[in-house]
Specification:
This protein is mainly β and 478 residues long. Helices cover 6% and strands 50% of the residues.
């Protein structure tokens, strides 16, 4: 009886334990799994940049890999100064890869290093070292050009060209220059990186001695040339001679004709001409000026007779010439042109046979066209209606408002417009503060309006000037 009871108890206990084990296993199978945090993103790429030049750039690629089974959101990517990426936030899919271009900007000199840090939502941060070097920027000037002037006659002027080149990384400011006695130059300003500036250097010896030393350029450059040798020698001037020579003029019978008087200085020193005297019926509108040695000055002489008769006499050139012939004989038979065009005097208001240029210079601002450095064109060249096959003539002034003579190189006329021969071109030197009258003819060949500009080119200030010109070509009346 007791044995039976013990066996029974053992069976009951075994059954209970088996049931308990089954329940535990069932509950364990049904218990929810504990979430594991996403693994950090993986970064790869060589971000150890080599040395780059100032104001240059270099790019490399950063690879970001997501090793997780779920997408990861990137919230920011940070990196040291002088580095920048083309992607800063977004989502990388599960087991996905995103490539970011990292650019190293050489906008300032120095050593740059640190870490690229990628921050995420839930996957923590990842980092990768980054570094690069930019040498400190410099401004360097180089001076070039031969400043060996050689022998120059005393009280004369010779020129040479100095070139200043900026071979550095950023702009350099030239504040001025210093130079030995006898030399001069005057330029200051800014020269951009890789650019150059030419400067005219003058040598004007006052004595018959040797001159020399160094020309010094003052600037904020970090390095380069500060000085360049300069030298010259003054020599004696031969006895000054100013010998005048004039060409002969032949005028046809006319109501209006212009010829060119050539005044040549065949001496060895500058000659000052104070004016040209003309006989009745002839006129000259050049007030005078300095003619250098060996130079010819072209001067327009106009024959504009007030009556139908013979005019003759001597043209007299007044100057400080030490020799030569300052007169030339002119003669012509005057004809009267009663048409509204063709007679020079008919274009003037009020009409007159002889007049100073200043009497004709326009004062209306709408008829004055200034340009750089004192060259001005003045006049009204609105021709209005002109029949095809006919012509009309107007005038304008070239005004030299500077204190030095200018050399007229040429005048460019639009199609259908032309120079009528007054004055004869090229004019040559335009004296300081001198007004040169120029005649223009409009001869249309087809019906329609024309509007353009006349362009005048001179040296001395290296500029051009323009004046508007227009006309309307209409059909000829049958």
């Amino acid at each position: 009886m007791n044995f039976f009871r013990l066996s029974n108890l053992s069976a009951i206990l075994a059954t209970f334990l088996s049931a308990l084990l089954w329940v535990g296993t069932a509950f364990a199978a049904k218990a929810p799994a504990v979430d594991q945090p996403p693994a950090p993103l993986k970064l790869a790429g060589n971000l150890q940049f080599p040395t780059i030049k100032f104001n240059h750039t270099l790019s490399r690629v950063l690879t970001i890999s997501n090793p997780n089974n779920t997408p990861v959101s990137v919230t920011s990517i940070t990196m040291p100064n002088s580095f920048a990426g083309n992607w800063m936030w977004g989502t990388i899919p599960a087991h996905g890869v995103h490539r970011v271009t990292i650019t190293f900007y050489g906008i300032e000199g120095g050593n740059f290093s640190g870490n690229v840090v990628v921050s995420t939502t839930g996957a923590g941060t990842s980092s990768l070292p980054i570094s690069g070097v930019v040498p400190m920027p410099t401004s360097i000037i180089k001076l070039s050009g031969s400043l060996a002037f050689g022998s120059v006659k005393a009280n004369r002027v010779a020129t040479r060209t100095l070139t200043i080149r900026n071979t550095g990384d950023y702009a350099v400011i030239i504040s001025g220059m210093s130079y030995p006695a006898g030399f001069s130059c005057d330029w200051s300003g800014e020269i951009d990186s890789g650019k150059s500036q030419t400067v005219v250097v003058y040598f004007s010896p006052s004595d018959t001695i040797a001159y020399g030393g160094n020309l010094t350029v003052h600037s904020d450059a970090d390095a380069g040339d500060l000085h360049i040798p300069i030298s010259g020698k003054g020599t004696a001037v031969a006895n000054a001679t100013r010998i005048i020579s004039l060409n002969s003029l032949t005028f046809p019978d006319s109501s209006f004709e212009t010829q060119t008087l050539q005044i040549t200085n065949i001496g060895n020193a500058p000659m000052l001409v104070s004016g040209v005297e003309c006989p009745d019926g002839f006129a000259c509108y050049w007030p005078g000026g300095v003619i250098p040695a060996g130079i010819t000055q072209n001067v327009s002489i106009t024959f504009s007779p007030p009556a139908q008769q013979t005019y003759s006499g001597n043209l007299v050139v007044n100057s400080d010439a030490t020799g030569g012939d300052n007169t030339t004989f002119v003669t012509a038979n005057g004809l009267i042109d009663n048409s509204s065009e063709g007679s020079f005097s008919s274009q003037l208001s009020p009409p007159r046979d002889y007049f100073p240029p200043s009497a004709l210079v326009p004062t209306d601002p709408a008829e004055i066209f200034p340009s750089a450095n004192g060259l001005t064109l003045a006049g009204n060249l609105s021709f209005g209606d002109v029949a095809v096959g006919s012509s009309k003539q107007l005038y304008f002034f070239i005004e030299n408002q500077t204190d030095v003579p200018l050399t007229l190189l040429g005048i460019s006329f639009p199609s259908s417009f032309s120079h009528t021969g007054f004055p004869a071109l090229p004019v040559g030197l335009l004296a300081a503060h001198y007004n040169q009258l120029v005649s223009v003819k409009f001869t249309p060949t087809s019906v329609g309006p024309i509007s353009d500009n006349i362009v005048v080119t001179v040296t001395g200030t290296n500029v051009t000037a323009t004046i508007p010109i227009s006309g309307n070509a209409v059909a000829a009346t049958p």
